[in-house]
Amino acid sequence: MEAKRDVIAWRGRAPIWLGLAAIAGLSWAYLARMQAGMSAMTPPMAVPAPSLTSQLATAFAMWTIMMIAMMVPTSVQSLSVFTAMSAKRRRGGSLTAASAFFVLGYIAAWAGYSVLAAAVQVGLSRAAFLTPMLQSASIALSALILLGAGLFQFSTLKEACLTKCRTPLAFFLAEWRDGNSGAFVMGMRHGGYCVGCCWALMAVMLVVGAMNLLWMAALAVFMLAEKLAPANWPLSRVAGVAFLMWGAFVAADLFG
């Protein structure tokens, strides 16, 4: 009987996990196509410069899709806890729909971050601080981002937000709301903690190139590891030291 219940539960949640995989997969495929298109531009300035509105819209779309590709897979632990609790607590309604609203709320939080990231990217690009591949062209800017990311890894805000991400059960016990609207709100609030935890790491993409797929994948794996690792594992601090050393090495070129 227990095995049969497990099979039924898995079948009920299969569309959720398949949908999550499809969203992430399509996002990565879009980014790969975008990267190939940008790399094929020869010369990069052969077309007229787009308007500010067009630049902001394009940058916002790129960052939002990037956030979906990188961060949605890191929500698997939270989504797993949500589906388990929702299956026990829901009074009617679809578990798949509730999960979809939770993920949409999570994405909405990162879309908010994408607004700021797009504005920063466009501003830096128009000031010639970024290359056409959206990589820092300024030693000072690169050093500032890397040192800032390194210091943030040791901050109390980082630790507080990471704790929420590591222990989603405690979050849901304190924040539970019924219905699809409640699922959306919980997804957005939990996504907010995720933004608070990972925003500085995302900023590093402007140093290595915002369209660098290898770095996207590496950072996504690291952020997932941060969330899944036991609290006594010093992953965040190790990364902080690495970024500080990298930033110091880059900054040394300013005086070399």
Account of the protein in words:
Helix content is 78%, strand content 0%. The chain is mostly helical. 34% of the residues are buried.
Number of strands: 0
What structural category arises from helix and sheet content?
mainly alpha
What would the average pLDDT be, to the nearest integer?
A: 88
* Rg over CA atoms: 20 Å
In terms of DSSP E residues, the strand content is: under 5%
Number of domains: 1
Stretches with pLDDT under 50, minimum 5 residues: 1-10
**Percent of residues in helical segments?**
over 70%
Largest sheet: none
**Strand-and-helix sequence, N→C?**
HHHHHHHHHHH
Number of helix segments? 11
Layout of strands and helices, then pairs:
Elements: H1 2-39, H2 52-71, H3 76-89, H4 95-126, H5 139-152, H6 156-166, H7 168-175, H8 179-203, H9 205-208, H10 213-228, H11 235-252
Helix pairs in contact: 1-2, 1-4, 2-4, 3-4, 4-8, 5-11, 6-8
